[in-house]
Write the structure tokens for this entry.
Amino acid sequence: MRLVEKWQTPWTMLSAGIVQRPIRSVRIADEWVDVLRFGRGEPLVLVPGLAGSWKLVLPLARVLARHFEVITCGLRGDHIPSGGLETDRGRVRDIGEYAHDLACVIEQLGLECPTIFGVSFGGAIALELAAEHPHRLGALIVNGAEARFQPTLGSTIARRVLERFPLPSDNHFVNQFFHLLYGAKPDPSPLVDYVTDRIWETDQSVIAERLTKLESFDVSDRLWKIEVPTLILAGAHDVIVPAARQRALAEGIPGARFATIEDAGHIGFLTHRAQVVRDVRRHLRRVKSSPRASY
């Protein structure tokens, strides 16, 4: 069942309200990528996850924009139409190439060492950027990622199904797998429908392609290269990337802090936005007040 009438106004209008703001496009390789920039304060680049692009992280971006200038952007492949990756357009070699794309966006926008906040797949991109382009950022925040992706039987099956079988976005059986994102089956709510709708806006072949890239992602032997002040945020009930594995990521980065989002799953950045923003602000206040050498 989709959004009930009383929910429709605030949530179905969320994307439209932001889209009314200027959306800039920057050219990366042979593709135009959306960039949104709003709010005031120190710049913070919010890197979205595997699917849903910048629209999925808008609820968090809106809250962050009360305290920061938020820049959020799409990823190459976001505009691939239904039908899949039939050409090289949208194809990206690996997570390192996505990180290079992000470095290009930062350069084209003239941002000087912004904070980079990556969620899920975007967290992997942020880690790669911090390891290989350290001069591009001033601080790092990662939620829902680990140093080396550990494929499970479930993720492998999901990728193969996405690759081989066209799936309808309104299929209840398929959509129930999204419950894993919450750590437990969520009660019906506008947010649940919003998340499902945004995920299906990314073509399933693109999702499968990104899962393939994630399976080969490994920054574990390069964590020592990350020198910027780092915060790792983990949902306490994350079943996609368990908190223990995210804690291990924090322990591998010199000087990194680790914090849990209580009662949250993999998308705590949406379900627990207020707590996430508090943790982000606390981290960046500490960064601002402490000399980098002693962080």
Summary: The two ends are 49 Å apart (CA to CA). The mean pLDDT is 85. The beta strands are 23-28, 31-38, 43-47, 69-73, 115-119, 139-143, 230-235, 257-261.
